[in-house]
Amino acid sequence: MSLGGGGSNRYDAVIGAAHAEGVLTVVAAGNNNGDACRKSPASTALAITVGSTDRGDGRSSFSNGPCVDVFAPGRDVPLIVLVLVSEPDQAAVISMATPHAAGVAAQILALQPSLTPDEATAALLCFSTKDIVTGLPADTANALLFNNRFDAEAAVCLEPAPPSPPSPPPAPPAPPFIRPPPPPPSPINTFPPSATPPYWRWRPPPPSPSPPTPSSTFPPSATPPYWRWRPPPPSPSPPAPSATFPPSASPPFWWRSPP
Q1: Do the bridges between strand 26-28 and strand 48-53 make them parallel or antiparallel, or are there none, so unpaired?
Q2: What span, in angstroms and rounded, lies between the C-alpha atoms of 250 and 90?
Q3: Long-range Cβ contact pairs of 201-204 (< 8 A, separation 24 or more)
Q4: For the whole model, what pTM was predicted?
Q5: CB within 8 A of 245, min separation 6: which ones?
Q6: pLDDT tens, 110-124?
Q7: 101: which residues sit within 8 A by CB, 6+ positions away?
């Protein structure tokens, strides 16, 4: 479409609908040396916006920017003049840059009919010669239209894109959480070395009973059990003589009074 007007994004809905149906749209950047981002349909992102160059590959003084995808010859190009019937003394011409780009896009789609609008746009930009246009405003794409599909370097632009690598397999599911067993209970007493779980409460044996304290002196040969020992009673003393006996007398004594 070699037309333009004020205001941005006014043709977005129409061009977007065509794009969704597989139709590629090529539009002019505009011819008033202004900002193409503020013009319509030049500002529509889904269209190929084309700027104009002169014979020296410089930007035409009237061509807009910077919302331009590619530049094409649009000045000093031989034209077919359309004479209006109502005004036979005047002639009207249209920009030739946009028809140049539309023709290359048509050739690409003729060679690769299965291309989508985005893929055809990428191929057209791939064909273009980079960094050759002079006199561009800042932030303007520097690409000049080129359509020699027999060029070895340009031919790769029509090669099918390599297939996308397969998606990685999904990660295996995480194993279910298993709660670890509780640690064994701590022993509450000292256990003998041979004890193994499960533990039963171990108590040391009671101390041996101490022997009873003796209540008397026991003979050395006495052993438990002890019985209280008493010494034998003393021997009775002989009776005292009641009289004087002759020395030769010996008991038993019988006493007689002298005659």
Answers
A1: parallel
A2: 202
A3: none
A4: 0.57
A5: 253
A6: 988 999 999 999 999
A7: 26, 48, 50, 70, 72, 124, 145
